[in-house]
Amino acid sequence: MEAINKTPKQIVAALDNYVIGQTDAKKAVAIALRNRYRRMELSQDMQDEITPKNMLMIGPTGVGKTEIARRLAKIVQAPFVKVEATKFTEVGYVGRDVESMVRDLVDVAIEMEKQSAYSGVRSRAVAAADKRLVKLLVPAQKKQNNRNGNDFQNMMNMFSQLQNGQMPNAEDNNNEEVTDDVRNQRLSVADQLKAGQLENSDVTIEMDDPQQAAAGNNNMLGQMGIDLGDTLGSIMPKKRIKRTMPVAEAREILVKEESEKLVNNADIYHDAIVRAENTGIIFIDEIDKITAGGQQNSGEVSREGVQRDILPIVEGSQISTKYGPINTDHILFIASGAFAESKPSDLIAELQGRFPIRVELDDLSKDDFVKILTEPKNALIKQYIALIGTDNIKVTFTIEAIEAIAEIAYKVNHETQNIGARRLHTVLEKLLEELLYEGPDMEMGEVTITENYVNDRIGNIAEDKDLSRYIL
């Protein structure tokens, strides 16, 4: 959680690498983040009294609302989830429970804490994984004597491990005969592994069945904080499958298994909940779609009911999760919506009061489109140059061509539906369609995208309003 101590100017400067314009929104989220750090520097009594200033972003689609929140979370290494308000339903209707967004946040925090804990024990886990790889690459013969007695003893050991709450270990290293020849081969293979000479060699390993893990996670009980998978897993052993893969890939799977043995899950769960409570960010998109707007038909899910269900979570309440209870008092909630057919005052008064910071994001101009195409680290022009470059074709865009693309995107946005920066994806795909199709069959060369090329490819389409509605 060290990254949360960035100053507002540092946060804005980092956001500038990915999001063009929207200075007011960047300042607002930077101040909100800095206030969380400031709060942690106060006494415990004062910390409990200070609640986060939740934010409501207002602006049309494609202007950067979601991107600002997502990048913000990455910059400060905070647990982050994005949810759609329209997916929730009020209590009594079929649909996702609003509390599930908090449980999703805890799941994200758990993964972050696991990665942090695993990185701390990686060197030991890699050493243990390499030992297992050596034995798999140079297997020894199993002992055959007193088979019935061994089977009975193994079964009794498995029952004993289950009673003690441990997972039975199918691998029994004492049940193999290691001859001098096998021992010498293993020493040689261990040296080759350390030197990185066997990374592409195939090895067969036993691993947990990923289907079983997916089935355990995908259940409605998980939304209510009940983990049926763990309950059944403590009774029944995990299903194991065999897979043959390169040593480099197998090592990572074995490293993860060894890391799980070296860390304390109870500590991870505790630290994750603390992390989610103090630095978690929940982004609620499309909140304008759950305003009643004066239209309410009988039989429909009450939109106001969804707002009332969200309210106690934003106000601060205790939610049960499978890792323990979490308090939402200090989670930062960022809501967003276009509010084209409604306005923030259409939300219920109590919910309006829980989003005291209002930020209106500006519509994107032609100059903004030019900057979006060229300035960010992940700029679209840079992406397409890199993609086409994999076919040994060097693509160059002239300044005039980039301005023509921006002009067309801006024009189509205002003559049809305004979808913000997402229009640039559509325009560029149509512009480069022929080059992307013919590229793999072309010989190495250079291609320059000029203003005339842009006008020839998509200029006529943009001029025809009926055609641009369907194509651009």
The CA-CA distance between the termini, in Å, is 43 Å
Query: What is the CATH architecture annotation of the largest domain?
Result: 3-Layer(aba) Sandwich
Q: Give the overall shape, derived from the CA principal axes.
A: globular
In percent, how helical is the residue content?
A: 40-55%
Summed up, the helix count is 22
The CATH superfamily label of the largest domain reads P-loop containing nucleotide triphosphate hydrolases
Structural class: alpha/beta
Strand content: 5-15%
CATH topology of the largest domain: Rossmann fold
Number of strands: 13
Number of domains: 3
Could you give the order of strands across the largest sheet?
2-7-10-1-11
Query: Which CATH C-level class of the largest domain is it?
Result: Alpha Beta
Radius of gyration: 28 Å
Mean pLDDT: 82
Q: What about the largest sheet?
A: 5 strands, parallel
How would you sum up this structure, described in words?
The chain is globular. It has 472 residues and is of the alpha/beta class. Strand 8 (318-319) and strand 9 (326-327) form a beta hairpin. The protein starts with 7 loop residues before the first helix and ends with a helix. The strands form 5 sheets. The chain has a 5-stranded parallel sheet with strand order 2-7-10-1-11, sandwiched between helices. A two-stranded antiparallel sheet has the order 3-4. The protein folds into 3 domains: 2-113 and 270-360, P-loop containing nucleotide triphosphate hydrolases (Rossmann fold, 3-Layer(aba) Sandwich), CATH 3.40.50; 115-268, no CATH class; 366-462, Helicase, Ruva Protein, domain 3, CATH 1.10.8. The protein is built from 22 helices and 13 strands. Residues 364-458 form the Clp ATPase C-terminal domain. This is ATP-dependent protease ATPase subunit HslU. Residues 51-365 form the AAA+ ATPase domain.
